[in-house]
Records
---
Amino acid sequence: MQQTIQNLTYVNENKLKQQQQNHDNYIQSLQQQHSSDIEQLRIEKQNIQQSAEHQLFQVQNQAQQWIASEQYRLVQEFSIKENTILNKYNTEKELEKQKLLEEFKDQKEEISKQIKELKTQIQEYQNQISDASEIQESKSEQLIDIKQKIEIDNTVQIKINLKDYPEDQNLPKYQKSSLLR
C-alpha cells in the first residue's frame, strides 16, 4: 500500500513537472515569437524610412532640376525676345518703335505671368515634398501602433493561456508573476 502511494506520488509529481515544463516551453516560444515580431517591425520601419527618404530626395532633385531648367529657358527666351525687339527698334521708323515697345511690354507681362506660374509650380513641388515627409511620419506612427498592438495581444494571450492551466492557480503568487513575464 505504501509502495502504491509512493508510485502514485511519483507519477503525479512527474506529470506536474511535465506540465510545468510544457507551460514554460510555451511561454518561451511566445517570447521568442514576440522578439521576432518586434525585430521584423523594426526592419520594416527602417525600410519604410529609407524608402521615404529616397523618394523625398528624388522629388527634391527633380524639383530643383525642373526649376533650374525653367529659369534658364525663361531667361533665354526673354533674352532672345529682347534682342529681337531691340534689333527691330534700331532699324525701323519712330512710329514702329512705339509699337514695338508696346509689344515688348506685353511680352514682359507675359513672362511675368510665366514667372508667377513657375513660382506657383515651385510651391506645389514644395507641398509634395512636405506631403512626402508627412507620409513618412504617418508610417512611423502606424508602425508604433502595430508594435503596441502586438505587445497587448501577447500579454492578453499569455493571461488567457494561464487560465488554460488550472494547476497554475495553486502556485504561489511569486511563481505566477514570473510566468506572466
---
Amino acid sequence: MLQLVLVIAIAFVLQALLSGIQMKHFSDEFVKLRRQGKVAVGRKAGGFHAGAIVMFLIDDKGKIRKGKKL
C-alpha cells in the first residue's frame, strides 16, 4: 500500500514539474513573438494523445508573418 502511495506521489510531482516547464516554454515563446507584433494562439486538445498549440505572428494587414507549433 505504501509503495502505491509513493508511486502516485512521485507521478504527481513529476507531472507538476513537467507542466511548469511546458508553461515556461510557452510563455517565453509567446513573449518573443509578442515583441514583434500581434499574436494569435490556437490549440487542439489531445485527450490521451499529444495535443498541439500554435502561435501566429500577425501584421497590421492581417497576414500571418510567422508561425510556431508547440
---
Amino acid sequence: MKTYGFDVVFSDAHFDYLDIDVQGYELEVLKSGGRNIKNLLGIHIEVSFVEKYVGQPLFRDVDVFLAERDFTFHCFTGYGTRSPRGVKVDGSSVNGINQWLWADAFYFHRLDDDEFWGVSNRLVKLACIFHCVYKSYDFAVHALKRCDQLGGSVYCHEYVRYLQEMGVDVEEGEDSEWIMDGMIKKLSLI
C-alpha cells in the first residue's frame, strides 16, 4: 500500500495541535512532518512501552525524537495494561495490574523559546489547550505569564482571577528561575 508523508498530504496546512494514534506508526508520521511539526504548539500521541507490532518504535524513541525538536513531555492521559500470556486477572487476560503497554502522552513546544512563542497568540492558544483539554490550570497560568512577559498583556492576572472565582486555588507566584540558579550553584560546589 502506498502511503504519503504528513507534509505531503498537508502541504499547505498550518496546525497548532496534533493528535496521533496510528497503531505503532506514530514515529513515522512525525518523521514525515518536519515542516508541520516545527510549527506545532502541542502534540497528543499514543506511545508504546512494549513492542506490540514488529519493529514498532517505543516511548523512548518518540520521546527522544520530540525532545530533539524542542518538545517537552507534559503528562500521560490514559494507558492500557495486559497480563502476561496465560494469566488472568479478575477473570480476564486483558486486565493487567501494573505493566503499561501503551499510553497517550502530551508534549508541548518548550516555553523558553522566545522566538517561537513570540508569534501572535501562540501562548494564548497553548493556555487554552492546557485549560480545556488537560485541565492543567497551573501550566495555563504559566503559558499566560510567559505571554504577558513577551507581549505586555495582562492575561495571566485575569485568568488567575477567573480560576479563583471558579474555586480553583491557584496563584501567580514568583518566578522559579531563582530555584534553578540555586540548584546550579549547589551543583557547581559538589
---
Amino acid sequence: MATAKRLPRLGISKIALRYLSDKIVRSIIKDNTVSKQSLSDYVWKNLDKWSDKTALVCVETKRSYSYLDVYKKSNKIANFLTNSKDLRKGDVVATILPNVPEYAMIVLGAIQAGLKITPLNPDYTREEITHCLKLSKPKLIFTLTDLWPNIYNVVQNVPIVLMNHRKEVMDIPAGAVKLSEVFDNTCPFKNRISDWNDVIYLPYSSGTTGLFKCIELTNGNLVSTIHHISVPEFRIQTLTDGNNQDVFPAILPMHHIFGIHTVLENLTLGCKAITIPKFNKETFIDVLENEKLTHCYLAPPLMQLLVNEPRIKPECLTRMRTIAVGAAPLGVNDVQRLHEKTKGNANILQGYGLTEAAGGICWQTPYISGGVKIGGCGMIYPTMELKIESESGL
C-alpha cells in the first residue's frame, strides 16, 4: 500500500475529500483483487489475443518487434541469465540504455529469471554512475556499444552485455557478450519464480536532498500499480481487437519510473509503442505527424512544446483521445491553450506519483463525475490510501 506525506502544489478534488477520514484519503473506486502473479506473467497474460500485433518500433532504426517476438526474446534473456554461473536468484543486473525496444525485453527477462533490475540514466556522468553502482551492486550490465567508450572505466570490473543500435559493431571488449548472441542461445530454461513480496526493481530517486537514492520495489508494488491504472475507471486505452490497436510514443525515459511504467502498462493491453531513444524536437514532430497516435504521456516541458511549437499543427493532435501529463504540475493557462489546440478532442489529464510508490498514486479520469479538474492531481487508485499532513505534522 502506497502512502505519501505531502502533495506539493496540487489539489485534491472535492469529491475525493468526501472520503477523507483522520487525514486518510481513500479511493471512491471499489477495491478489486489483483492476481498475485509475477510481473512478467502479468504482462503476458493475454499474449494469445495479440501475438501478431506490433509491440515495439524504434523510430530511429525502424527495428520492429511483434508481441510474440518480444515474448520469445524476453525468454531468451531469461534463459541466458538463469544459466549464468555467476548469477543467483535475487542478484542485481543493471541497464544503462536509452529508450530502445530491447529495454522492455531486458526488464521482463531479468524479472522472469528471478533477478532484480536497476535502471541507470545513460546520460549520467561517470561519478553518478559510480555512485549508483555502489548502491545497487549489479553483477551484470546491459548497455550499448555506442555508450561503452564513455563508461568502460567505471564498469570494467562488471560483466557486460552489449547491443548495437545505429550501426553494427563487431569489435567488442574481451569478455563482453553481444545481445544478439543472447537472443540466439539455446540454453534450457531453469524456472525461477518471484514471490509477491520479492524486490525486483531498483530505480533511483533524487529524494529531497543529496545524491540519488536507490528505491526497492517489489513484484507486488509494480503489478498492483499497473493493474489499478488499467481498471475501466482509469484506463485511457481501448482494447486491442481485430484491426484496432492503440499507439503511443515511448518518449519518457524508461530509466524513470513514469517511463517504464507506461511501457509495461501498454504492453499488458496490447498497444503499440513507438520508442524514441533520445529526445529530438524534429523526431518528435515527425512522430506526431506520421504516426496515428491515440494517446501519449508527457512531462510538462513536452506538453508546452505541443502548445508553443508552430510546426505542431492542430491536426497532429486532434487524433489523440488522451494526453496524460505527470512528473510536475501544469499551469492553468497551458492546459487551456492545449485544449484549444486539440479543439477539445483530447482529454488532458494530470496525475501524481513518485518513484517510491512504484509510479502513480492518483490520476484524473473523465469516467468519474468530478474526476477532471485543471490543476488537480485526480482520483486515488483502488486499494490505495493517501495520508495528507502539514509540514508541521499537525
